[in-house]
Design the sequence.
């Protein structure tokens, strides 16, 4: 637990939230990432009182993650001198397909390989508090809508491009999650220039192979082995895009190719949904060079849709802010005693 | 007007509709097609009392179409010996992008090239009755949900494949039309194997060029010029698919190719929406060989979605039945005098 660290911040996430109340108590938002677990404690008006984070690099099983969530929540409550029963709800964003109705993480890929984990019940049992779980990209979309680039926008798509690619789809102000919770899993999208060979279980999808972080790295290494010894082979996607902005021609080729593939995927999503706005997030998606180049590529196809791309305003905080919002929305309107929650979980 | 004909049928469209009432009066559903205008008169329980149709081949402007709608409606009322004021509402499905809120046909392609036609106001002025207009594929989706292959299904996509390709998207029981009324315009979708060159105005989209009726014909002619003089060059898509079922190898190549492209497009739509069911309609989409071959192709990609394909149960009546349903839903709950409608239109 030597990687654990605390951050004490006093920042306002949600200044004028519809969920804000002056009720006593507090909520916790959690972002379960592949490398970090991040928690934020907020009061009932949505103001973040403190944060907590820990590495998840060596962890795989849900039990260890649940223990960290509990430790973090208790540590933050102690930090603000609040008793355990001041905690009204917890919302947890996880990197995988999540059954929100039943609080079950159906599957995660890449990092932990969870299958059918009843995360809500497990955390409720530990903390005797209302728990909601959702996909992390959906959480990020909620965060951007509450306090970020899509503030007050009713129809938009949050597109997370990191190692994987996923979309959080907001239609008429609400998340569209799909009939089996996989809406927005566009990392598998088939676009011209990407492979149409079906992905195997645990493998990245066709689009991810091209423009996910690892995909871009792999293509860089292919380009690099073709000649440009002046640049390191171990560059990641954002290094490469930085070099493209500096004028390196190989990096520019890869930026242009990535932007074109991304634009094709966004155009396809847009043909289906006709959403006017796409918010690009995730470590790769946040890069300004990618956003600009993708908008330029996208502007070729103006019929019958012409969506606008903007970068996430919240960055890596989008998931966490969305989780705080989800926690606030989940607070039971009538306070329920811990005993009741214990018996219902 | 020599092509005008009347059909007198007594069929029940909607046996147990939620919109069915025993109120007096009747409604009219209209399907404006590129070659035919079709009308159905139904009582307030959704039972179709009579039908009327006319050719639209020589017509281009909205005025002539509106006059035909009025003639047809009056003729049907006369047919069932009902006075003009028995008519409570009319719903009109048009082959183009339609602003449902304002009753404006923004654009039609191929056949009539309408631009910003205030169809609702124009028909209301003529008939002093509540009018609704919507895209014909959306109408067809409503028809299939009311009385066809998607009966009582809350999440599905109706996919019309004829000369053009379009999708009617039903999410949580309601049509999703998009922020500028173009949701589901997937005839432009970019999939591997199709052109990524942007379509020009008035031109078919990338996917339509491959698997729309005209696209399939064009590819058949290309194949044919390569050698198979035993089959006519003027075959249309359904002729070709029939021959594929008969074992003709060239026709089988084209069927397989069309099915693969269709499966890629459906997979992409499914990644976005995660809808479990796709209903295939339209003259090309209705062909059983295409549906079977597309399902087979689609079953290659099982991660993370595996939608089921079925053929439209209503066929060319889907639009008309959907329009009858839309007309029933549009009936004002308090009967309004014709004079009020005249002043508000």
Sequence:
């Amino acid at each position: 637990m030597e990687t654990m660290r605390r951050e004490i911040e006093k920042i306002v996430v949600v200044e004028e939230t519809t969920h804000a109340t002056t009720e006593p108590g507090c909520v916790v938002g959690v972002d379960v990432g592949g490398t970090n677990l991040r928690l934020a404690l907020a009061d009932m008006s949505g103001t973040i009182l403190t944060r907590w984070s820990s590495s998840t690099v060596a962890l795989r099983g849900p039990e260890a993650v649940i223990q960290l969530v509990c430790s973090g929540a208790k540590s933050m409550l102690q930090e603000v001198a609040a008793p355990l029963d001041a905690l009204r709800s917890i919302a947890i964003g996880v990197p995988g397909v999540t059954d929100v109705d039943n609080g079950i993480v159906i599957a995660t890929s890449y990092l932990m390989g969870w299958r059918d984990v009843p995360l809500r019940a497990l955390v409720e049992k530990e903390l005797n508090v209302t728990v909601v779980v959702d996909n992390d990209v959906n959480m990020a979309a909620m965060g951007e809508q509450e306090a970020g680039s899509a503030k007050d926008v009713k129809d938009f798509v949050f597109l997370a491009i990191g190692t994987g690619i996923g979309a959080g789809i907001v239609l008429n102000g609400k998340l569209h999650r799909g009939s089996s919770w996989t809406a927005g899993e566009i990392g598998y999208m088939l676009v011209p220039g990407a492979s149409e060979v079906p992905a195997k279980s645990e493998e990245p999808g066709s689009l991810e192979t091209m423009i996910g972080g690892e995909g871009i790295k792999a293509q860089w290494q292919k380009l690099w082995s073709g000649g440009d010894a002046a640049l390191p082979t171990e560059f990641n996607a954002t290094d490469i895009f930085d070099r493209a902005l500096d004028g390196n021609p190989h990096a520019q080729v890869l930026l242009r190719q990535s932007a074109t593939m991304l634009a094709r995927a966004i155009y396809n999503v847009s043909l289906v949904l006709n959403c006017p706005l796409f918010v690009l997030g995730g470590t790769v998606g946040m890069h300004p060079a990618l956003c600009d180049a993708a908008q330029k590529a996208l502007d070729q196809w103006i019929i019958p849709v012409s969506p606008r791309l903007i970068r996430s305003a919240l960055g890596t905080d989008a998931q966490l802010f969305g989780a705080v919002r989800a926690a606030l929305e989940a607070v039971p309107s009538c306070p329920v005693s811990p005993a009741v929650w214990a018996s219902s979980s």
Chain A has a mean pLDDT of 87. Chain A touches chain B through 46 residues (CB under 8 Å). The radius of gyration of chain A is 20 Å.
